[in-house]
Amino acid sequence: MSKPAAFHPLARLLHWLMAVLILAMLFVGVGMVSTVSEKHQWLLALHRPLGITLLVLVVIRLVVRLRFRPPALPRDMPFPMRFLAHASHWLLYGLMLAMPLIGWAMLSAGGYPVMLGSALHLPPILPANGLAFAWLREAHRYLAYLLFLTILGHMAAALYHGLIRRDEVLPSMTVGVRPQVSATAPAADEPAQE
Amino acid sequence: MPDPSRSSAPPHPWWRWAIIAAAVIVLAAAFGYAGGWLAPDRLTPRRIIDGLQQDSGVYPGYRRNHAKGVCVAGYFEGSGAAAPYSRSAVFGQVRTPVVGRFALPGGNPYAPDSSVPIRSFALRFNLANGQQWRTGMNSMPVFLVATPQAFYEQVEAGRPDLATGKPDPKRMAAFFAAHPESGPFLAWVKTAKPSASYVTESYSGLNAFYFVDAQGQRHAVRWQVVPEARDDAGTGPAAGDGDYLAGDLQRRLAQGPQRWHLMVTLAGPGDPTNDATKTWPADRATVDAGTLVIERAQPQDSGPCRDINYDPTVLPDGIEVSDDPLLAARSAAYADSYLRRTGEEAHLPGTAHPEDKR
User: Fold this and answer.
1) So what's the ipTM on this one?
2) 8 Å CB contact between A160 and A138
3) Does pTM surpass 0.90?
4) Which of A16, B39, B181, B189 sits at 20 to 30 Å (Cα–Cα) from A121?
């Protein structure tokens, strides 16, 4: 099956939009629970509507991912690296989908109204239950840490592709064109130029 | 021996690796700062709740403050008088179901009812439109401090001395000397006596809020619930009964529902909205927003108030938080306490286990 050389422009748009929003969300999340200042209020007011926005975006993104095949990984990537690349991507998708749902379920179980603005609110998706709240609240925290670590790894791997291997992986999610050199020779086989 | 693998091949100068390492370190450090791990001076909800625990001890499954209490339920019937100031549906001439909780301040759920002259009343209004209004009120006219930082200092000053098991009076005196804003509270507490009943008390929301009317206009307000029942000297507690408040409540409810009026005071120009230690002048306009009717009581270990966090920033459309810095701190600290006690109930790993009686 032939695969495109780069991610579909829509996939790239979703990737970078969600990258910014998810990072903002993680910072808002750890920030709002670590302060008693007024920041707590407005960060909380930001966190919920942003979370639901990300839930909608990840659903669109999954559809785009299934509709438009992603480019293949470079053929010369060793197996452990390929495995890590695939596993970390499915982990990212899983966490992107799970985090907003857990947040919504957690507020539901805590008996809180799921307010997205001063008047707009969503229905609960779980009955009020303090025990379920506690489990979901802690899952929300630790999965957020896991998501952050996975993003760090993802970013490091992308930079590794771009700076060390200098293959087509990073351009396939940025400019979207295959760099000239990699069409003929893998980057690392170039003579040292620096 | 030359290594043919890409990652260690010579054409990759150190600075390429350094860029990758720097990107990871900078992002991780920023996250660590945002989350407070790299900001040890930040006043976090955890520090406040840890401080309360150090003062009172840990009673797994219980609230970290106002630990002793009782669940109540009933309804609020709006009079319509507050509707010109707030567009919230709760102020129309409708009945809104309410789940509430009477409590004593302090972290000890076994404290005798006479140990403090303050009682508290928390309410959750479940509006028909799915929104909620939660409020935590106290039977005093002003709060002790104006800021979260001062509250934390007061919690630290109240730490029991290891030798005596009691707070050091000198430390408390030093705190109050450094916090003249506590003056109105201290003047009140000097004459306050522990009441014999929850239902004869007025309870004040203490913090200011904004009502938002149908035109979007904001009105700074404070509220208080004022009882219909009057003090009744005949119902005083029996000597040696440390739990007389719950018994009194059951007796009174057996005779009929208990009523309060929700009195909303409108701020005048210049009245402070950010300082819960200051009262507003007595001549401010006040409206009777409706009647709160409490019909039933249940023990807190099995009642519907148990799993409710009475976070005063959970508000319906038509009510907004003011610039009072205590509100965000109450929200953040209550959330921490709520997670600790529900986590203990759920036996989450690493939590203390609730005692048998919960």
Assistant:
1) 0.92
2) no
3) yes
4) A16
